[in-house]
Amino acid sequence: MNRRYTQPSNRRLENNGIEVPLLAQWLVVFFIIGLLGLFFVYLKNQQHALGEQTRLVEQKMTELRAHHDALNAKVTALTSRGALQRKLDEKYLDLIPITETAIARINPLPNSGEDKTMRTASFP
Questions:
Q1: How do residues 16-39 score in pLDDT, each as one tens digit?
Q2: In the chain, is it the N or the C terminus that has fewer CB atoms within a 10 Å radius of its CB?
Q3: pTM of the model
């Protein structure tokens, strides 16, 4: 008998086995890609939320600028010469003249000698 071509009776059938290291490697790759996708979506949502907040702040700043300009115009109108004259005519304001004793006068320093130069302050 030729044993070369005979098969043993308890030989296992060959089956396609799952290569666990390769499968684990691909699962890790897909997991990382999924995490990156979720991170990208999170950042886009944050970007839209911050954009909305920025838009609201800019709108509020525009409103405050308009209000500030209106108040400046009102202050200018209330302090104009015509408005002050009208308040004077209505006796709402009263002007008091400045007395001579309330005015401080500074006399010029005397010239020193014949060359008419100003004397500098010096302490002995």
A1: 677 888 899 999 999 999 999 999
A2: C
A3: 0.47
